[in-house]
Amino acid sequence: MNDLGFEHIFQAAADPAAPTLLLLHGTGGNEHDLIPLAERIAPEAAVLSPRGNVLEGHMPRFFRRLAEGVFDLEDLRVRTHELAAFVKASAARYGFDAERVIAVGFSNGANIAASLLLLTPGVLSGAVLFRAMVPIVPDPLPSLRGTRILMSNGRADPLIPASQAEVLADLFRRCGAHVALEWQAGGHNLTKRDLDLAADFLRT
Ligand code: MLT
């Protein structure tokens, strides 16, 4: 285990004014998975890419689940706070701006990014969530005013019912976030259009 709490990759930005992308892989992925995606959607950004600390069989994840789509909420809370602490410690170690961290998460990684937004507001200034579902509903809701969120889900995703994405987008809006929910014709896998939408979102 790395001394910051997660095995990870950090790549500094060529432009010091560029934001840092927190890359969060899907179930069975690792810290290398989303590096090419980041280079495609925001080549100027710094990247911080941790590997999930939970193992399901041999597959890394960011938090435990009890079944497909049924989350261990106690573990989710603990892991979310661990990841928030990792982001802050990494900002101090590598010298990037902790106020300008944008998560880019896929599937399980998108779900922990959503949990970071809801449980540890202030850690992320924005997020790109590919194929996310509702991780947890905090009570009371946090303020996410000023936070920009792009969600992109698949109409034919066998893992995530469309209603889940609608409920999550609505939850973020009730917290005051600015949310764009985009629908893709396909399923769980990412498409070129997902990447184009993310690149546009990160440019503005
Ligand atoms: C999750 O467990 O976070 C979701 O079911 C998505 C996934 O399979 O990773």
The proportion of residues in beta strands is: 15-25%
User: How would you spell out the order of helices and strands?
Assistant: EEHEEEEEHEHEEHEH
Taking the sheet with the most strands, its summary is:
7 strands, mixed
Q: Could you tell me which ligands this complex binds, including any ions or cofactors?
A: D-malate
Percent helix among the residues? 25-40%
Structural class call reads alpha/beta
Residue windows where pLDDT falls under 50 for at least 5 positions = none
Shape: globular
Distance between the termini: 36 Å
Major sheet: arrangement of strands = 1-3-2-8-9-10-11
Rounded to the nearest angstrom, the radius of gyration is 15 Å
- Treating each run of at least 4 consecutive H or I residues as one helix, how many helices? 5
Overall strand count: 11
Instruction: Give the rounded overall mean pLDDT.
Output: 96
Give a quick summary of the entry.
By secondary structure, the protein is α/β, with parallel strands linked by helices.
Tell me what you see in this structure:
- With 204 residues, this protein is an alpha/beta fold.
- Helix content is 32%, strand content 25%.
- The protein contains 5 helices and 11 strands; from the N terminus they run E-E-H-E-E-E-E-E-H-E-H-E-E-H-E-H.
- The strands form 3 sheets. A 7-stranded mixed sheet has the order 1-3-2-8-9-10-11, with helices on both faces. A two-stranded antiparallel ribbon has the order 4-5.
- Strand 8 (101-106), helix 3 and strand 9 (126-130) form a beta-alpha-beta unit.
- Helix 2 (73-94) crosses helix 3.
- The longest helix is centred in the middle third of the chain and has 22 residues, at 73-94.
- The model has no long low-confidence stretch (mean pLDDT 96).
- The structure holds D-malate.
- Residues 26-27, 65, 68-69, 107-108, 111, 159 line the site of D-malate.
- D-malate (MLT) is lined by residues 26-27, 65, 68-69, 107-108, 111, 159.
